Input
Amino acid sequence: MMEDLRSKLSKNALIFLPYRAASLANIENVAIQRTDGKGFDGHSNVTLTDKMPFFTPYSVQLKSDAYATYTRDVTAQGKGRVKYAAVVLPYGLTLDGSAMHSNAVGQQSKFYLAKMKSNALKLKSDKKHEGADYDVVAKFDYLTGIAKSEANVPYIVMVAEGYGDGNVSFVATEKGALIGKTPTTQTGVVGSYEVQSKLDNSPVKFKSYYTYSGRVLNKAGNEMVFYFSLDRFVAFKNLKKSQLFLFPFRTFFHFENQGLHLAKSLNSFEISFDGEEEATSTDIDDVQEEVVLKVTISTGQITAEATKDVPLTIYTVSGRLCCTEP
Output
């Protein structure tokens, strides 16, 4: 009977049974109500499948010899091992003090967890001329000194050297896990923590979001959603497609300031961690660069003036190459 029921449910469905059904407690992804009616326990393992929806209306405490496990598939298969990932899990992970989690059972996997810090945005290069894209990294803090991560909170994962491959990024397994109740939302997207920074000396607020159900976002109204792709967060406004498909267990940031004067040049940001020196420790301000090429357009002619030898290529409005000068 249970096999027939399981076949009709999603892979990540949890089955909640009354305490009188304790004989079925050894089946995976089953929760048994406590005899006092106050909560549910899991006597067997809970296995969560990546990219499949997940929801639990109740918290479930696994017994000490049972574990919860989630395997993150590499989203872009065939492109090799990935170093970073953005993830949300319904259970916390034990950390070793240096923000690293190491599986105590099952497939071995080691990785570090981090969150975006306040005043995170930093210049990657020294100069930027007005109107250009911001060349930016965002600083993240490792969960150093923290014994356990939180359930239902978005994190950045940095996979430890020697772990992960072109198919599986990481495996997150926790013995005796407390699986947290899923926050309810009408949209399938849940808001989480916020961070403050600055852009052009104006306050900037990023808010993190996540989904367990999966979600399709339309570009209209969501242009300043930053989704994780190839080790950086990329603005939805630059995606050629009009829809963004978010898999379950994925997270994203949203630029909460809607003023276009703030957002127009922020197209993506890389991730970095304290102790890495590739970023300049200043807020993002426009710095005027030496103008080496001036182009003037008038009726019937284009005039180009340069202070040094620079290449010049001219295209028609339709994109056809008109001429080029070395």
User: Anything to note?
Assistant: The helical segments are 2-7, 260-263. The radius of gyration is 24 Å.
